[in-house]
Amino acid sequence: MTLQWLFVAGTLYTEVALISILMLPFISPKTWQKLFRSRLASVVSSYSHIYFNIFIAILVLLFLESIREVRKYSSQSAVEDAKVSIHADTMHHMKMFRAQRNMYISGMALFLWIVLRRLVLLIAKEATLMAECEASIKQAQSATTVAQQLLEDKGTKDDNKKNAEAEDGEKKSTKADQTHVEKELAQTQAELEKTKEELYRARLEVGSIKKQAESTNVEYDRLLAEHAKLQ
């Protein structure tokens, strides 16, 4: 295996290892996000699109080269030349095997390189979404707490308002009762004054009747005395 195909094979094995590590379930996207945002990763990621394009261009060229070799050794002329001798046929099959192997390795390396980049982007996006989700949950909890506090304050204000209205109602009721009592007291006093006047008049009438009775008795005694004298 020549140097470039050793490079492609090493790239393929590295990609398989990285994808396997990135897909481990016990490593959260937040951990990968912290790693991606580290100082070293930030320096590398600032030129990541350049590295990606250069690397994918190299893999595409090697993949096209492997396809060319496969077509070369699959051509009719190459097959006919291999039938000349057993050694030539063996060499043809060996070269065909190497060309197909290189095509599979370079094609898989190219495919996994695209998959690896996509996987890294998805992990970073998932970590960002998780952070936004946590921030939204915290914001919703804070808004809920504020709303509950406002409702409690409103309930307290309503209770205070009801208590104030009840106190005002009691005061108004007390004033109304006091006014009613004052009216009844004034009416009672008026009736008492009227009763006193009637009592006074009754006493005057009784005194007058007594005087009339006394004068009647005196007159009756005088008449009896005159009657006695006449007899």
From TrEMBL:
<dbReference type="GO" id="GO:0070973">
    <property type="term" value="P:protein localization to endoplasmic reticulum exit site"/>
</dbReference>
<feature type="transmembrane region" description="Helical">
    <location>
        <begin position="47"/>
        <end position="64"/>
    </location>
</feature>
<comment type="function">
    <text>May play a role in anterograde transport of membrane proteins from the endoplasmic reticulum to the Golgi.</text>
</comment>
<keyword id="KW-0812">Transmembrane</keyword>
<feature type="transmembrane region" description="Helical">
    <location>
        <begin position="103"/>
        <end position="124"/>
    </location>
</feature>
<comment type="similarity">
    <text>Belongs to the BCAP29/BCAP31 family.</text>
</comment>
<dbReference type="GO" id="GO:0005789">
    <property type="term" value="C:endoplasmic reticulum membrane"/>
</dbReference>
<keyword id="KW-0175">Coiled coil</keyword>
<keyword id="KW-0813">Transport</keyword>
<feature type="domain" description="BAP29/BAP31 transmembrane">
    <location>
        <begin position="1"/>
        <end position="135"/>
    </location>
</feature>
<dbReference type="Pfam" id="PF05529">
    <property type="entry name" value="Bap31"/>
</dbReference>
<dbReference type="InterPro" id="IPR040463">
    <property type="entry name" value="BAP29/BAP31_N"/>
</dbReference>
<keyword id="KW-1133">Transmembrane helix</keyword>
<keyword id="KW-0472">Membrane</keyword>
<keyword id="KW-0675">Receptor</keyword>
<dbReference type="GO" id="GO:0006888">
    <property type="term" value="P:endoplasmic reticulum to Golgi vesicle-mediated transport"/>
</dbReference>
<keyword id="KW-0256">Endoplasmic reticulum</keyword>
<keyword id="KW-0053">Apoptosis</keyword>
<dbReference type="GO" id="GO:0006915">
    <property type="term" value="P:apoptotic process"/>
</dbReference>
<keyword id="KW-0931">ER-Golgi transport</keyword>
<feature type="transmembrane region" description="Helical">
    <location>
        <begin position="5"/>
        <end position="27"/>
    </location>
</feature>
<dbReference type="GO" id="GO:0006886">
    <property type="term" value="P:intracellular protein transport"/>
</dbReference>
<feature type="domain" description="Bap31/Bap29 cytoplasmic coiled-coil">
    <location>
        <begin position="191"/>
        <end position="231"/>
    </location>
</feature>
<keyword id="KW-0653">Protein transport</keyword>
<protein>
    <recommendedName>
        <fullName>Endoplasmic reticulum transmembrane protein</fullName>
    </recommendedName>
</protein>
<feature type="region of interest" description="Disordered">
    <location>
        <begin position="151"/>
        <end position="190"/>
    </location>
</feature>
<dbReference type="InterPro" id="IPR041672">
    <property type="entry name" value="Bap31/Bap29_C"/>
</dbReference>
<dbReference type="InterPro" id="IPR008417">
    <property type="entry name" value="BAP29/BAP31"/>
</dbReference>
<dbReference type="Pfam" id="PF18035">
    <property type="entry name" value="Bap31_Bap29_C"/>
</dbReference>
